[in-house]
Design brief:
By secondary structure, the protein is mainly alpha-helical. The protein is built from seven helices and no strands.
Length: 167
């Protein structure tokens, strides 16, 4: 369980710290990763109204900004991958909706469920990345991989159940 007293070491007027905690969604004392993913789901709903390449650009930019934000937050808190750092969930969610049909904003809920499953279960290589890569990169990569799993399973679900998933 994460030590939430460490969050007090963050300065939320510092944009890197605010970004690291997912604009405040990671400050939840219970299930901060789920709270971060939930907020990201609403951004995904908007991204699903855009062409796929907009989502890809947002995911890549957020990844690189997240690297810096995670490094800054870890330095301030003096710990690696604190539960309150949730910018990585945003990136994972953005990856999970890549190439979904444009205009199908409701598919963000499917991405949310699938991403949370893979982020919590951490199948290989997600668990390997989580346990063996340090710094901001370590914080980000396991969620990128969980997002890729969610992306693959989401597209398989769309292929077999598109009539039930797309309204």
């Amino acid at each position: 369980m994460a030590d939430y007293s460490l969050l007090k070491k963050l300065n939320l007027s510092n944009p890197w710290h605010l970004l690291a905690v997912g604009l405040g969604s990671g400050l939840s004392p219970k299930a901060p990763g789920t709270c971060g993913s939930f907020l990201a789901m609403f951004i995904c709903m908007l991204l699903l109204l855009c062409p796929w390449y907009v989502t890809l650009i947002v995911a890549v930019v957020t990844f690189f900004l997240g690297l810096k934000a995670c490094n800054e937050a870890e330095k301030a808190m003096g710990t690696h991958d604190h539960g309150g750092i949730v910018i990585d969930e945003f990136v994972g969610m953005f990856i999970a909706i890549l190439f979904f049909p444009q205009g199908q904003w409701q598919l963000a809920l499917l991405a949310f469920v699938l991403f949370r499953i893979f982020d919590i279960l951490k199948p290989f290589p997600v668990n390997y990345a989580d346990n063996n890569i340090g710094g901001g990169l370590g914080v980000m990569v396991d969620d990128v991989l969980a997002g890729i799993y969610a992306l693959i399973v989401g597209h398989i679900a769309l292929y077999f159940f598109s009539s039930a998933l797309i309204m």
